[in-house]
TrEMBL record:
Organism annotation: Hydrogenophaga intermedia
PANTHER family listed in its UniProt record: CATION EFFLUX SYSTEM PROTEIN CUSC (PTHR30203:SF32), OUTER MEMBRANE CATION EFFLUX PROTEIN (PTHR30203)
Signal peptide stretch: none
Protein name: RND efflux system outer membrane lipoprotein NodT
Similarity annotation: Belongs to the outer membrane factor (OMF) (TC 1.B.17) family.
A GO term from the CC aspect: plasma membrane
A Pfam family hit: OEP
Membrane topology: Lipid-anchor
Length: 461
């Protein structure tokens, strides 16, 4: 065969290759953001880095909490699964990408069959073989590759979201442990005060200076304190167990110590604008990549209506005898292009396209919901930031007032001016105010964690 003949035969194939890759994927347009253009109670954030630009190492300022987060990022099993899932989806993307290229292998075959004259005819061949390769003339394989790429990018965002969630969970659990430690101290102090009151009341009862009612009230209050102490000890143990699970190992005792009251544990973060969420929030970015994948699948479903062109080829040597395989004149090649145009498939392709379009519509709704959910989380956290500080200050003032009230009631009781009921009421009010202050302080710190996570922080190293 001359070079001219070979060129003539290959011209349609070359043209097909040049035209291959035309895409039927619909033009992607990001859906409009279904939320307001600004957060309520956000304040000014001009020129300040957003939470998404703040690495968790900068957000977490306490050294012990920072070490806990580092250990969790190294050992947490959920995060490990999310990371491994990226590798799995990456491999699937590489498989789809490889489908666009021909697969060439070394082939050897032998065939023996009757020749019609009573003898046996033998044929042997050795050479390179191109297995059935689909020439992506209408972009079906390209669309599947784009869908796989988007799914891979979505898995990366899922991992980022998992890391944000992990950092937030570790910080919140550690803060809860700190609060329960403080509540334990308050409960022990309150119980000690109540037991002192019980001893004094019993002494006064034995000397006829107090009634049986006073004694029973003092006993009841002391028993309530012991029950509260047991409850706080259980809450502390549950917090330690939660941290052990999140960190993926037993947490050293030195990392669980109570932080100084005035020590800055977490940095403040600016709110930014809702438009920042579209490009920074991991859940939203994951939802958008899922939408892009669904959009690409429509292109693959559309291409299924058009002819599918495949090519099978081989080049090598063939002979009727094994000894003649590599002799002159035994070399050659075969080329077998096939075009298959769907005519009747019982509605399979139509149903495939309908399914792909519905999947895209579902992905749009999920993307919009992800935006709305993120906006709601930020707005809730901003509402907490705007009010919790004032609430905490008011409760601090209440604690100061209740401490003075208890001191005066106890002094009046010891001097026989007031009844023991006044002392009991002052004790209960002081204990409740101290507990409320500690819980509000926890809510303020955990709200800062929630705002950081809702704004898309937590995954930068």
């Amino acid at each position: 065969m001359t070079n001219r003949d070979l060129t003539t035969r290959l011209s349609p194939l070359v043209a097909a290759l040049l035209l291959a890759g035309c895409s039927m994927i619909p033009t992607y347009e990001r859906p409009a953001s279904p939320v307001p253009q600004a957060y309520p109670l956000a304040g000014e954030a001009t020129g300040v880095p957003s939470a998404a630009d703040t690495a968790w190492r900068d957000f977490v300022q306490d050294a012990r909490l920072r070490e806990l987060v580092r250990r969790a990022l190294d050992n947490n099993r959920d995060l490990r699964v999310a990371t491994l899932n990226i590798e799995r989806v990456r491999a699937q993307y590489q498989i789809q990408r490889a489908n666009q290229f021909p697969s060439i292998g070394l082939a050897a075959s032998g065939n023996r069959q009757p020749d019609g004259t009573g003898g046996i005819q033998s044929t042997y061949s050795v050479g390179l073989a191109l297995s059935t390769w689909e020439i992506d003339f209408f972009g079906r394989l390209g669309a599947l590759k784009e869908a796989a790429l988007a799914e891979y990018l979505a898995s990366e965002q899922a991992r980022n979201a998992a890391q944000t969630s992990l950092v937030s969970a570790v910080a919140s659990s550690w803060l809860s442990l700190q609060t329960n430690e403080a509540l334990l101290a308050i409960t022990r102090q309150t119980l000690s005060t109540r037991e002192d009151s019980l001893r004094l009341t019993k002494l006064r009862f034995d000397n006829g200076a107090a009634s049986a009612l006073d004694l029973r009230q003092a006993e009841s209050l002391a028993a309530t304190g012991r029950a509260a102490l047991a409850q706080q000890q259980r809450a502390r143990a549950l917090d330690v167990n939660a941290l052990n699970l999140l960190v993926g190992e037993a947490v050293p005792a030195e990392l669980l110590q109570v932080a100084e009251a005035e020590t800055a544990v977490l940095a403040d973060v600016p709110a930014g604008l809702p438009s920042d969420l579209l490009t920074r929030h991991a859940d939203i970015r994951q939802a958008e990549q899922t939408l892009i994948a669904a959009n690409a699948n429509i292109g693959a479903a559309r291409a299924a209506f058009f002819p599918r062109i495949t090519l099978t080829a081989s080049a090598g040597t063939a002979s009727n005898d094994l000894s003649g395989l590599f002799k002159d004149g035994s070399w050659g090649f075969t080329l077998n292009p096939v075009a298959l145009l769907p005519i009747f498939d019982a509605g399979r392709n139509r149903a495939g396209l309908d399914s792909a379009e519905v999947s895209r519509d579902i992905a749009v709704a999920q993307y919009e919901k992800a935006i709305q959910t993120a906006f709601r989380e930020v707005a809730d956290a901003l509402a907490g930031r705007a009010t919790l500080a004032d609430q905490l200050q008011a409760q601090r003032d209440q604690v100061v007032a209740e401490e003075d009230r208890f001191r005066l009631a106890d002094l009046r009781y010891r001097n026989g001016v007031a009844s023991f009921l006044d002392v009991l009421d002052a004790q209960r009010s002081l204990f409740a105010a101290q507990q409320a202050e500690a819980q509000t302080r926890l809510a303020l710190q955990q709200n800062r964690v929630a705002l950081y996570a809702a704004l898309g922080g937590g995954w930068l190293e």
